[in-house]
Amino acid sequence: KAGVTQTPRYLIKTRGQQVTLSCSPISGHRSVSWYQQTPGQGLQFLFEYFSETQRNKGNFPGRFSGRQFSNSRSEMNVSTLELGDSALYLCASATAAGELFFGEGSRLTVL
Amino acid sequence: EDKVVQSPLSLVVHEGDTVTLNCSYEVTNFRSLLWYKQEKKAPTFLFMLTSSGIEKKSGRLSSILDKKELSSILNITATQTGDSAIYLCAGPFNFRNEKLTFGTGTRLTIIP
Prior knowledge:
The complex is a heterodimer of chains A (about 110) and B (about 110).
Chain A: E1 5-7, E2 10-13, E3 19-24, E4 31-38, E5 42-50, E6 53-57, E7 64-68, E8 74-78, E9 87-94, E10 100-102, E11 106-110
Parallel strand pairs in A: 2-11
Antiparallel strand pairs in A: 1-3, 3-8, 4-5, 4-9, 5-6, 7-8, 9-10, 9-11
Chain B: E1 3-7, E2 10-14, E3 19-26, E4 32-38, E5 44-50, E6 55-58, E7 61-66, E8 71-76, E9 85-91, E10 101-102, E11 106-111
Parallel strand pairs in B: 2-11
Antiparallel strand pairs in B: 1-3, 3-8, 4-5, 4-9, 6-7, 7-8, 9-10, 9-11
């Protein structure tokens, strides 16, 4: 069974640009959540989607947005990038019991 | 605000030693507690503990939940160099399981 797949794995952007990250959950998992990981703040929750609906949102500015498609695949977008957005962005899909499985992550560097 | 605290922040032991990692939480609505291992990439799921499943074991790793003390421990026996990683504790301490609050982690280093 394939795990959570994230693309791209690495990307470099400059300040002011925008970026879109993609996540394909484990087959059968309908919940997809996103986390930001930085050395200073650790792992922080961004948002979670279930059946194309955002059910929960963390404390991030409106520049961070996401969506989920009917096949459960999800994308997150960050607009007007800032240096502080440099981080590892992790996507996770969840079983019905609440066990979260993470993808390899997308490492974003903002110059 | 929900809070998860892990200790120690880092730990260095020799191969073959047994280690105990700690996680305590202050939450308004406990549902479950999860342990992850993170090496150089994404966190790998280890265990989920709930009110109905307070003890889990897998090979040399085991974990116990103490709901009275609001804490959990992760034990690793006969440590190996491959156990070197950051161990993260997290909980969905609200209505939705999928919103996890993570601790800062314990960095475990195993010396050969």
